[in-house]
Write a structure and sequence with these properties.
The chain has 4 helices and 4 strands; from the N terminus they run αββββααα. It is α+β, with helices and mostly antiparallel strands and 210 residues long. A 4-stranded antiparallel sheet has the order 2-1-3-4, with no helix packed on it.
Length: 210
C-alpha cells in the first residue's frame, strides 16, 4: 500500500499560480484562489506539464462554446475549399483542358438545339399541309371536321413544346458558360500560385499465380 501511495504522489503534479494579491501559491491540487486565472501544473521534477485555464461561469462557457463552434465551422469551410481546389486542379491541370471541356459541353447543347430546331421546321411543314386542308373551310371554319381541328391543336401544342425546350437549352448554355467562367477565375489563381496537381494513386499491382 505504501508503494502504491508513493507512486500516486509522484505521478500527481504540483500546481502553481500568482493569486490576486500577487502572492505565488503552490499546491498538490488545483488552487481555489486562482480559479479565475491560469495555473501551471508542474511535474515533481519541476518541468511544465500543462497550463490550466481559468474556470468559466456558465455564461462565459456558453460564449466560449459559441466561439469554438464558429472556429470549427471556419476550419471545416477552409478544409472543404481546399478539397474543391484539389479536385478542380486534378480535373483541369491547364487552360487548354478547361477550354476543351467547355467547348464539348456547349457543343452537346448545340446538338440538342439543332435537333429541336429541325423538329420545329418539320412541324412548320406539317402546318402548311394542314392550312391547305383548311382552305376548304375558309368561309366557315366551324364546319371543319374534328380530326382536322385536332391536327391543328396537336401541331400548335408541339410547336409550343419545342419552343420552350429550345428556350430552356439556351438558358442551360448560359448556365454552363457561367460555371466555366467562375471555375476559370479560380483556376487562374491556382495556376498562377503554382499549386501542384494532386498525384493520382498508382494502380494496384496485379498478382500472378504460377
Amino acid at each position: 500500500m505504501a508503494a502504491v501511495l508513493s507512486q500516486a504522489a509522484s505521478a500527481q503534479g504540483i500546481y502553481s499560480c500568482v493569486d490576486g494579491a500577487g502572492r505565488k501559491v503552490t499546491a498538490d491540487r488545483p488552487i481555489a484562489e486562482c480559479m479565475d486565472r491560469t495555473q501551471r501544473e508542474l511535474s515533481r521534477s519541476g518541468l511544465l506539464k500543462r497550463e490550466v485555464g481559468p474556470s468559466l461561469t456558465a455564461q462565459e462557457r456558453a460564449v466560449q462554446d459559441e466561439k469554438d463552434k464558429l472556429a470549427a465551422e471556419v476550419r471545416a469551410r477552409e478544409a472543404e475549399e481546399k478539397r474543391r481546389d484539389r479536385a478542380l486542379l486534378l480535373r483541369y491541370p491547364s487552360r487548354p483542358v478547361h477550354d476543351k471541356e467547355r467547348a464539348e459541353a456547349l457543343g452537346q447543347i448545340d446538338e440538342v438545339i439543332k435537333a429541336a430546331s429541325k423538329r420545329t421546321s418539320e412541324l412548320a411543314e406539317q402546318r402548311k399541309a394542314i392550312d391547305i386542308d383548311l382552305e376548304f373551310y375558309k368561309s366557315d371554319p366551324a364546319k371543319a371536321p374534328g380530326s382536322l381541328k385536332r391536327r391543328v391543336e396537336e401541331n400548335e401544342s408541339s410547336v409550343a413544346v419545342q419552343k420552350r425546350f429550345i428556350a430552356d437549352q439556351d438558358a442551360e448554355k448560359k448556365r454552363v458558360n457561367m460555371r466555366f467562367e467562375e471555375e476559370l477565375v479560380k483556376l487562374k489563381q491556382l495556376w498562377a500560385m503554382g499549386v501542384a496537381v494532386p498525384a493520382k494513386a498508382p494502380p494496384l499491382p496485379v498478382s500472378t499465380k504460377n
